[in-house]
Amino acid sequence: xxxxxxxxxxxxxxxxxxxxxxxxxxxxxxxxxxxxxxxxxxxxxxxxxxxxxxxxxxxxxxxxxxxxxxxxxxxxxxxxxxxxxxxxxxxxxxxxxxxxxxxxxxxxxxxxxxxxxxxxxxxxxxxxxxxxxxxxxxxxxxxxxxxxxxxxxxxxxxxxxxxxxxxxxxxxxxxxxxxxxxxxxxxxxxxxxxxxxxxxxxxxxxxxxxxxxxxxxxxxxxxxxxxxxxxxxxxxxxxxxxxxxxxxxxxxxxxxxxxxxxxxxxxxxxxxxxxxxxxxxxxxxxxxxxxxxxxxxxxxxxxxxxxxxxxxxxxxxxxxxxxxxxxxxxxxxxxxxxx
Amino acid sequence: xxxxxxxxxxxxxxxxxxxxxxxxxxxxxxxxxxxxxxxxxxxxxxxxxxxxxxxxxxxxxxxxxxxxxxxxxxxxxxxxxxxxxxxxxxxxxxxxxxxxxxxxxxxxxxxxxxxxxxxxxxxxxxxxxxxxxxxxxxxxxxxxxxxxxxxxxxxxxxxxxxxxxxxxxxxxxxxxxxxxxxxxxxxxxxxxxxxxxxxxxxxxxxxxxxxxxxxxxxxxxxxxxxxxxxxxxxxxxxxxxxxxxxxxxxxxxxxxxxxxxxxxxxxxxxxxxxxxxxxxxxxxxxxxxxxxxxxxxxxxxxxxxxxxxxxxxxxxxxxxxxxxxxxxxxxxxxxxxxxxxxxxxxxxxxxxxxxxxxxxxxxxxxxxxxxxxxxxxxxxxxxxxxxxxxxxxxxxxxxxxxxxxxxxxxxxxxxxxxxxxxxxxxxxxxxxxxxxxxxxxxxxxxxxxxxxxxxxxxxxxxxxxxxxxxxxxxxxxxxxxxxxxxxxxxxxxxxxxxxxxxxxxxxxxxxxxxxxxxxxxxxxxxxxxxxxxxxxxxxxxxxxxxxxxxxxxxxxxxxxxxxxxxxxxxxxxxxxxxxxxxxxxxxxxxxxxxxxxxxxxxxxxxxxxxxxxxxxxxx
Lengths: 339, 619
Description:
The complex is a heterodimer of chains A (about 350) and B (about 625). Chain A is built from eleven helices and twelve strands. Chain A has about 350 residues and is α/β, with parallel strands linked by helices. In chain A, α1 packs across α6, α3 packs across α4 (about 105-115) and α5 runs antiparallel to α9. Chain A starts with about 25 loop residues before the first helix and ends with a strand. In chain B, α6 (about 170-180) crosses α8 (about 200-220).
């Protein structure tokens, strides 16, 4: 953004009409956090594009005053990839859900991440199909009773972070819909990250899966059951800030500082920027009750992005090719003059 | 020309078929021969015939790969029904191709491979050289392998036998150069260019080329030389081009003439893959290619690119088109430009992936959920794939719609001698772009003439808007579940496509302009065979005409008038009658007879003529 431009504000991204999610939906605070974060990301208003698939979360583009494209179930990522590959200068965001990105769009999810194309993917993970009214999703916990699993699910759920690491992701963060400040900070980090940013948002579905995350993010338990990770900081959690994470062999363990000879020096320091994904993978996989659930930016590493490499190939071709225009193309190679 | 006095016979045209193992370089040999013929000025058409296995076991029927070249002094529009000359490098190649050669044809075999071991592999019970099966043919038993090896070994360059054996196709080439009275220098030039970085390979291949040439000149088994004069009616600058390359270039031309960049999102699929490959070489002309993880992602990235202001395109074949249909519906409801190229092959399912067919017509016209019309056009020769890819791009961008371009395996891989168009004379394309900060802009406001919406691009100041797969309100583009609005929008989308008919040329008649006894009706890739068959019958005095359709949906506005001029209508197509069925639905007042073929093969001129005569003579 140039100096002369007036600084954008949240209001620049607010639509005039109504937002039509259910009252109490986690979508509202997410939308607000995005609208507050965007002015801090250095974008110009005209260059922002929101793309979505199908599902409650995917109504997002209608509720934010930017360019928007509400696409097909599962296909937001290839459409967003087309936009970004075609026009690298655009700031491209995807709003998707656990069904949209992990089930019908699962293939696109891993391949988009593998390419490291510079888009920001917000996964609204409410662990349920909301728009179709309450069927289990790929992130629904094993055994859950839903409309399509009257006897409980018999499928292991995906963790979006696991898939991101498995697909060689360069950025993964987890946030909670009821923590506006945390979301805003992470959205800004994600926007600034060059490459595919995956943000898993633990989102509440007030109608079909109410309080699904409550046992982790609930007011009374959150300090003990979540750990806020910050790059360069010790991995400490707990109401009294007396719990920490250590590496015991190849396992992460939660320990109490001051007990069993554990001191603050034994506690791991979070390094989100190390290329080695092993510790990030372990952190992303931490689940309650064995371990606290990791919140914040878990992984943020540099790697060349798809669209910059593609642009470089285009530039190189323009500089080196003998064919300069359509006429040159038509007459290239073997041509016969017949008289 | 040596002291061996041999007879020279002048021919109007000749068909040569090369056949060997898939690893024998038959496609290369065929290309080399056709290049030499083109540079001599012959008209020509080629068609490769390759198995879907890449390298099936050597010497077996499954592994036979072929390449047919039709060259002529007269006009050439097909690769030819049957071969005048067959080169069979092993018994399997002979066995597979005997049914595709003319009675009395010249057959050149590599005698070194005709032994019991090879007969067994090819599944011969009797030795074909000693039973009656080759009686009446001119058989040339050339020791191709042994003479090629001996030639290479005599140069003492320390070349291994495997490499030496790869020169065999140059022996064949030398033999053909002599047989067709050609300047062997052209063959040398080809080798020098092909192996420019490997001097040893240039030396041995040239030596073997001459060995073949000298062998043909010397051996008594070859008694005649053939001569085909340069083409009568071809003047100007030409090149050989396949349908797939022509399609790729047509898309580039479309984007350039509209002043936008081209983006192809695709997934490899036979026989369409070369379009993706070819465009990958032309990034210098503002082309981006994206090899997607699947067919769906292919079309979706293209839609994303179109939304972002590029000409988005995707290339595929029947199975891929099936996977893309939901996304095609998205491009229809969001009214974004998009070119979908379907290079048809034998179906359903994996079917005959390397063979040609016209059986995706109904899928192209109707194969989507909802009321979802889009223009369908079809190319009818390898070269005019360029014109119709350009036309598809023009319609897509000027009318703001996805367009399906149908080609087929026969056009895609076949070549013709194509007159290079004048790039400056191609028409400009005028997409309905919007000016920055246009306060009158509404996403679904329509152009008066075309009934299409305009194209506002992300990044443009003051035009932020939201589109998507949910039904939108007329003009303003807000999400709308209003029942009446859905009907209005459904009719808007249909009307927009109907109006494309106002911008396409009239349907032409080849033959009796004022009508006559029989109108042969074809569409797309069958043009060459239908046209030649009709032409030959007209020369024999029959009252017969041809209407070959390139614009399928909507049909040209004069279609009813054209059909009404004729007494009988015969629809010929490589499927079980899809275009006939479509015409019945559009113009039910005519009685459509059908001639259908569904063997993975193109029409042969002979079978068409027989059918046409049968109908003409049936009073």
